Amino acid sequence: MPSSVMPMPMQGNAHPSPAAVSAVGLRKSYGDKTVLDGIDLRIPAGSVFALLGPNGAGKTTAVKILSTLISPDPASGEIQVAGHDLATDPQAVRAAIGVTGQFSAVDGLITGEENMLLMADLHHLSRAEGRRVTAELLERFDLVEAAKKPASTYSGGMKRRLDIAMTLVGDPRIIFLDEPTTGLDPRSRHTMWQIIRELVTGGVTVFLTTQYLEEADELADRIAVLHDGRIAAEGTAEELKRIVPGGHVRLRFTDPAVYRSAATALREATRDDDALALQIPNDGSQRELRAILDRLDTAGIEADELTVHTPDLDDVFFALTGPAGIPDQPKENVR
């Protein structure tokens, strides 16, 4: 990993949103194996935070610690979830959170409605309140028609929706989704994304672990990449994409004379005389793109096609977690 890659500071004003989850120096070891090597987290309330990393990076371990399922190492610093100290008030943490793992907790031997009512009992809701909440959530997650059927007959996407509906019975302020779309077809994944967006709109904080880079790009306000037990980089999707070199603007022309004039005006550009195209290093930012266009306007030149090539999260992921360092071919977006 390049030594220049560092976690990025939070953006915003002098009064950031209160933290739904905060951890300083979070550590977890099993014997001689260090899984989490002193990671720091601060997740604002009402946001989506995505933790990325290869298999075995420690994503699920982090979720298990923050949801009180396992304990961190004694050497860890202070950890707070929903404003409660994880070490001294774990019961208050449990009351404020919901957890959905990559493997469904749904009991296939009973109906979807019975799964929901069982969860209501576990949250000590009255019978009337449990039935009211169950009916509301079954309707919200489009499971009314299947409510009386055994959950074993549900599709993967239906089981995952039921799983999240069960998680919401306790009205959690923070939800940990550990690889929630693993094994789902593309349509079911997009349905799950919409559910997550609606949860956040309602004020819920979502801590998401995923191996789908597109998923993090679509949903997350901030993303952290976990590698070898440490946070390799953290920031918005756009901030992370800029740390990988290789971004450039490609200008293509149909008139050879205009192409030659552009090459003279943009002397730093790499020429492709056969394609009548110029390639200029660019980080994809609006400021740098405007500077190129201003130079062309000043010279009275107009390109027939402008393509912005920017690294995507796949490139970032491989650059931060792979042995080769930087991928060869960045992806492109045509604007």
Description:
This protein has helices spanning 59-66, 90-96, 112-122, 127-140, 156-168, 186-201, 213-219, 237-241, 256-265, 286-298, 313-321, and strands at 19-30, 33-44, 48-52, 79-81, 84-85, 97-100, 174-178, 205-210, 222-227, 230-235, 248-252, 270-272, 277-281, 305-309, 333-334. Mean pLDDT is 87; it is low at 1-15 and 325-335. The protein has a 6-stranded mixed sheet with strand order 6-7-8-3-9-10, sandwiched between helices. A 5-stranded antiparallel sheet has the order 12-13-11-14-15, with helices on one face. The protein is α/β, with parallel strands linked by helices and 335 residues long. A hairpin with a 2-residue loop joins strand 9 and strand 10. The longest helix is centred in the middle third of the chain and has 16 residues, at 186-201. It has 11 helices and 15 strands. The protein folds into 2 domains: 19-106 and 154-241, P-loop containing nucleotide triphosphate hydrolases (Rossmann fold, 3-Layer(aba) Sandwich); 248-309, Alpha-Beta Plaits (2-Layer Sandwich).
The average pLDDT value, as a whole number, equals: 87
Number of self-contained structural domains: 2
The main sheet orders its strands as: 6-7-8-3-9-10
Query: Could you describe the largest sheet, including whether it forms a barrel?
Result: 6 strands, mixed
The total strand number stands at 15
Write down the overall geometry.
elongated
User: Could you give me the name of the CATH homologous superfamily of the largest domain?
Assistant: P-loop containing nucleotide triphosphate hydrolases
Number of helices: 11
Highest-level CATH class of the largest domain: Alpha Beta
Query: If you compute it from the alpha carbons, what radius of gyration comes out, rounded to the nearest whole angstrom?
Result: 24 Å
- Beta-strand portion reads 15-25%
Order of helices and strands: EEEHEEHEHHHEHEHEEHEHEEHEHE
Structural class: alpha/beta
Low-confidence stretches: 1-15, 325-335
